[in-house]
Amino acid sequence: MSRIKQCFEQLDAAHKSALVTFITAGDPNPEITVSLMRAMVEAGANILELGIPFSDPMADGPVIQKANERALAHNVALRDVIGMVRQFRQSDQQTPVVLMGYLNPIETLGYDSFAELAAEAGVDGVITVDIPPEEAEDYLRALRGRGIDPVFLLAPTSDSERIARICEAAGGFVYYVSVKGTTGSATFAIGEVASKVFEIRKATRLPVGVGFGIKDAESAQAVAQVADAVIVGSVLVKQIEALADEPESIAPALALTISQMREAMDLI
Amino acid sequence: MPTDKQIDYCSQPDERGHFGPYGGLFVAETLMGPLQELREAYERYRSDEAFLKEFREDLRDYVGRPSPLYHAARLSRRQGGARIFLKREDLNHTGAHKVNNTIGQALLAKRMGKTRIIAETGAGQHGVATATVAARLGLKCVVYMGAVDIARQEANVYRMRMLGAEVVAVESGSKTLKDALNEAMRDWVTNVDDTFYIIGTVAGPHPYPEMVRDFQTVIGREAREQIVQQTGRLPDALVACVGGGSNAIGLFHPFLDDESVAIYGVEAAGEGLESGRHAAPLCAGSPGVLHGNRTYLMQDANGNIIETHSISAGLDYPGVGPEHAWLKDSGRANYVAVSDQEALDAFHELTRCEGIIPALESSHALAYATQLASRMDSEQIVLVNLSGRGDKDMHTVAALDGIKI
Q1: CA distances from B183 to A56, A57, A60, B211, B230 (A)
Q2: Domains, chain A, ordered by start
Q3: Strand B116-121 relative to strand B22-26, pairing
Q4: In Å, what is the CA distance from A266 to each residue of A198, A211, B125, B234?
Q5: Considering only CA atoms, which of B313, B315, B279, B274 is closest in space to residue B297?
Q6: What is the pTM of this model?
Q7: Is A12 an annotated catalytic residue?
């Protein structure tokens, strides 16, 4: 059984939602990333999302754009990101790791080489923001061939036809983007999110995660009531940005935010 | 590989926006719905007689079309070799070919009930053309422009603001056209309900490359008719500059099936292709995915987009329209590159020799056209797209001469 599936099954048995935490690999420097991953797991993160730095992150707001720039200043490339996962796996065999990024770095490496390297390193899923299922035939073949789950995004603008199509292509879980906008943008309306998640559940048996606009323990708790996974990114990356000059303070800061969210989610 | 004879150049793209392996639809899920809506609207109106009539009348009465085809006799004589004809897109309202497309897309936006227009701009020509049509149709307009470009195109920034547009300085990445496009995409994702994104070139996700091309082919259709009228024959060669490639595809497309017509797209070699400081993805880049489509890109070994350089802001873009990528691979068009210095020389030459001040972008086409013409004989014809006028470049050129204006 895949790590992602196992993770959701265990949480489901305990009537809990997963907390999925995102940071950009190599932000603010490549040496610290693996220790941040470990610290996030200790603080209560269930699934780790690791951003692949890219020069043109079109779907990201200013906070994650700057994280990409900080990582690229250290020349962190896709191969390095995969190396970080390999290193993380030496001490953690359980926690699923999902890479998130844009298509061009993956295409440059080649779908098959990427899938092979990522699978060997212990990557469990990949979210590629700018590849819709319509263009993904070769990409899907490469990932599935190596047992990597292709996680896809759904948006408020996705109609029922698209929801069905995307759920058919998706693996691991589906990621509902709660707002029209970029990462770190406006707050969502929980009622609208709930009804969309309800609609998505009719189309798939995969777990449904919700991300974008979750800023604190309160909003994490609200989302946990309707979704299988609560996905947080910009709020953590903002802390990294603020502490970029004192990297030793980053892990405790992230841990505090994550444990507060986890605690609030567990109160449900 | 099919031979040239078997390729039907004018039937591209396919229904999903592919030009061979290029083009397509590579965007975040939030934009898939709005792009579907745009495709449906465009499919409906591209054959709607009332829409086309309004488009044609606007091009005639507001833009001033047809633009003349001018035999640059003095330039041709000085150069020796083939006769050089200039398609005078510089005489269009707002000073460049860009307005052909913004009129088309704005008419579409209105029919779709959108009340807010956004655009990206490099040199400012597309931004001005967008702000102009937005003013005329009473639509709210926001233009994204790289901070570096804002500094080198002050006059156009002021024009856009006078026209009522909000000009937003983009400070991310390399602070040029590609970053302006990223930012416009982010705006669109956030405001999809009321906003129409007018992309200024034949790049971006399907249907933009096809739609922008269709609005710009008025250039080539007119030129084809005019050259036959004036000389009794088709030209031997077409030359146009290529940044994103909209003026070039507009000229080239109606000639694609004319096998006797050679086609040259001219990219910006900046300080030279070997220097790495250029904006010539077709000549010196490799295929990849950016801004919604697969095409040739300037990128590093890790798939990150690298910074480009050109003296002309309008060519300073690391990608290129997917149809050009396909025309390159199929061999139907040739892509070459001209340096900053060669473009500047051509700029001065046309100004002094014909009394026409060309845009620095168009000066790249002129530089290659004069080199090409000199290797041809006097019976032959080279048709150049003079895509814009040089008024906007006065600051840049004066600064190189050490003059502050």
Answers
A1: 10, 10, 10, 21, 45
A2: 3-266 (3.20.20.70)
A3: unpaired
A4: 21, 18, 56, 76
A5: B279
A6: 0.96
A7: no
Q: Which of A121, A105, A118 is nearest to A71 (CA)?
A: A105
Token pair in block for residue B83: 């006769």
Of the candidates A98, A58, A114, the one whose C-alpha atom is nearest the C-alpha of residue A209 is A98
Buried b (16+ CB within 10 A) or exposed e, A27-45: bbebebbbebbbbbbebbb
How far is CA A219 from each of CA A14, A200, A262, A265, rounded to the nearest angstrom? 21, 20, 11, 9
CA distance B27 to A57: 11
Per-residue pLDDT of chain B (405 residues; tens, 9 = 90+): 444 445 788 889 999 999 999 999 999 999 999 999 999 999 999 999 999 999 999 999 999 999 999 999 999 999 899 999 999 999 999 999 999 999 999 999 999 999 999 999 988 999 999 999 999 999 999 999 999 889 878 889 999 999 999 999 999 888 888 999 999 999 999 999 999 999 999 999 999 999 999 999 999 999 999 999 999 999 999 999 999 999 999 999 999 999 999 999 999 999 999 999 999 999 999 999 999 999 999 999 999 999 999 999 889 899 999 999 999 999 999 999 999 999 999 999 999 999 999 999 999 999 999 999 999 999 999 999 999 999 989 988 999 989 887
Is the CB of A166 inside 8 Å of chain B's CB atoms? yes
Q: Do A107 and B305 touch (CB under 8 A)?
A: no
Q: How far is B126 from chain A (nearest CA, A)?
A: 21
The nearest alpha carbon in chain A to B305 belongs to A55
